Amino acid sequence: MFIVRPLLSSVKSRQTLKKTSCLFKVLSTMSDDSTAGPLLKRPNEENHDEDSVERATKRVKIDEEHTEDSRKYPKKKVVLLLAYSGKGYYGMQRNHRNSQFKTIEDDLVTALIKSGCIPEDHGDEMKKMSFQRCARTDKSVSAAGQVVSLKLRLIEDIIDKINEHLPQQIRVLGLKRVTQSFNSKNKCDARTYSYMLPTAAFAPKDYDIENIASFRLEPETLQRVNCLFALYKGTHNFHNFTSQKTPKDPSARRYIMEMSCGEPFIRNNYEFAVITVRGQSFMMHQIRKMIGLVIAVIKGYATEKIMERSWEEEKADIPKAPGLGLVLERVHFDQYNKRFGGDGLHERLEWDHLEEAIKAFKEAHIYPTIVETECEEGSMVNWMATLPIHNFEATSSETQDNKNQKQDNEDEGSNSD
Question: What residue spans carry the Basic and acidic residues bias annotation (predicted)?
Fold first, then answer.
């Protein structure tokens, strides 16, 4: 028994090797035949194969680059401080359905990709980068203190490299690390806007608009203007100051902290003034309508009673001032700063150290654009010509009947959405 088993095992091994050798010869013959006479392919099939190989190679290369960049520069949650002149742009927010209308975010995302801060394949899906703007500015509206939050690769000289791919009228001024869950819109406690306008907007309605360069605002008129703006302070129902909001909609109630007009100054021989308003949040067109209504009262087209009546449930006819002079000045994160600003790990979201850079940008790109456009195109003057069309004592039905005509005239005069 001890002799037979090894013999049987040896026989079986030889048989297995013999079969394996035969199989190898058959496969080798088949391989030689296929090499000698390859199957012919149609031209389209050859092109398709080449394209597939090229795409696959490109994907592998991109994946390798992404992996290498991710290892060298891991993504971190940050906020960017932005300043921009809104002229020529259809607002801040991207709109993929209307890509022919250029927005600030279009140019920003392009710069982030070109600088290597985000992967190219994330450009159309910024949610992958947790992107969120603090405030959505409308067409022609500028900003000196816009803040966006997102995840970025923290490359070297990141701010300079992003700005290399941005037009001069858009700048990234600052960057700070934030908590992973930070959302610039939800964490914002308040927003401060300014509105620069020619003081002739407060001239009597029978004033000669051809002579607005010589108009100078009287101190008594400025005082009355500020008394009217002070009426907005507190919480009110601003359903009449936006669109598609009903009086019963809780979101129409907004809290205004401050609103006033500063002392006038001269630019290009015209007198201008800056209105400043700080509120918890604002609806679309709300600020422009708040200013438009005060102008209508000062000029004598409406009485002061309409101010309080505008917060009631009845529909009121509120004019919308041009968008040209509106600037997002600053966004506030008081609660975030209180909770995380002193923990030793995170910075306070304040930009006092960049005040000079912010001021320089406004003087170079925002204020000149507002002044020159106003002087050349007469944005405010054209809009004021539409005020007589409004019926400030109108009922809801009368307001609806005249809505289309007023809207067409306002949009033509204000050059804004």
Answer: 53-69
Same domain, 267 and 383: yes
For residues 209 and 178, state if they share a domain. no
- For residue 77, give the nearest of 183, 185, 179, 188 by alpha carbon: 179
Whether 273 and 194 have beta carbons less than 8 Å apart is answered as no
Domain co-membership, 325 together with 346: no
Among this protein's residues, is 138 annotated catalytic?
Answer: yes
Same domain, 260 and 388: yes
| Four-CA torsion 190, 135, 131, 94, nearest 10 degrees | 170
CATH of the domain at 143: 3.30.70.580
Query: Strands, E, within 178-286: which ranges?
Result: 190-198, 234-237, 253-261, 265-267, 270-279
Q: Is residue 387 part of a domain?
A: yes
Listed in sequence order, the DSSP H helices in 265-387 are 286-299, 305-309, 334-340, 355-361, 367-377, 379-384
How many Cβ atoms are within 10 Å of 265's Cβ, its own excluded? Answer: 12
For residues 141 and 86, give the distance between their C-alpha atoms in angstroms, rounded to a whole number: 5
Residues in contact with 275: Cβ distance below 8 Å, sequence separation at least 6, in sequence order:
194, 195, 196, 197, 229, 259, 260, 261, 262, 291
Q: Which SS3 state, helix, strand or coil, does residue 320 take? A: coil
Let me know whether 401 and 324 are in one domain: yes
Q: How confident is the model over 314-371, as pLDDT tens digits? A: 999 999 999 999 999 999 999 999 999 888 888 999 999 999 999 999 999 999 999 9
Rounded Cα gap, residues 35 and 382, in angstroms:
81
- Binding site members: 193
Q: Does a structural domain hold residue 30? A: no
More confidently predicted of 369 and 128: 369
Catalytic residue among 138, 189, 411, 417: 138
Number of domains in the chain: 2
Euclidean distance between CA atoms 110 and 134, whole angstroms = 19
Q: Which residues contact 113 (CB under 8 A, 6 or more apart)?
A: 119, 120, 122, 123
Same domain (yes/no): 269, 401: yes
What's the predicted TM-score (pTM) here?
0.78
Per the annotation, where are the binding residues for substrate? 193
Residue range 270-292, pLDDT digits in tens: 999 999 999 999 999 999 999 99
